[in-house]
Design goal:
By secondary structure, the protein is an alpha/beta fold. The protein has a single domain, classed as Rossmann fold. The chain is about 30% helix and about 20% strand. Strands 1, 2, 3, 4, 5, 6, 7 and 8 form an eight-stranded mixed β-sheet that branches. The N terminus and C terminus are likely disordered.
Amino acid sequence: MDTSHCGRAEPVRVAVFGSFYRGFHVLSELLKGPFGARVQVVGVATDDVGGGFVSRERRVWAYPHCAGEESMVEELAAAHGLPAYKGRVKCEHFYQLYENDWRPDLCIAATFGQRIDARLHGYPRLGFYNLHPCVDDGWPSGYAGPNPFQALLDDGLDHAVIALHQVDDGFDTGALVALSEKIYFPPTASVVDLHKSTSPLAAKFLVQQLGTLIGAPARPHETA
């Protein structure tokens, strides 16, 4: 029996775990981009920069940034009627919210300061995926970890790619789905510069792959 409305399937329920520029641009694409009519963002989790559980000292928050960069994902979510969750995700309170209210079919992580456990990554029927900067050095990449841009700069590299990969119990070790085109940067670039310059491209790369993940092509004329 066809349960779709007027011949159209129900939107895929998507949750975003993200912050800073990558989280902002990914959430923007899901809310306003070409899949806006095919997906429904049902939950947003973002970093509480003051919370010790985000490992601030090992992530982008260790670098100079402004208050607006801490809250950009939360504010974008609020503008679309989505309260952002900023607490611990590995706790019974969040498990209940995730499984009973959000009920995501698909999850995307994009600069998120907490590890995802099996109860979370094993729930969505279409998978839980992460966008991670690295280079094409085999998979898992040698640039797995919480601060890949700093590692790339330390090694004197002039480019990065964005890996879209499944989330598993390891640290950026889940099965690789796709790699983006190379994104070049100057030797004077900082970690924050790289977040700013690569995040729009990472979000567009996700959109390119999203049809495969949800089993439906984009319709460019359909936006939220």
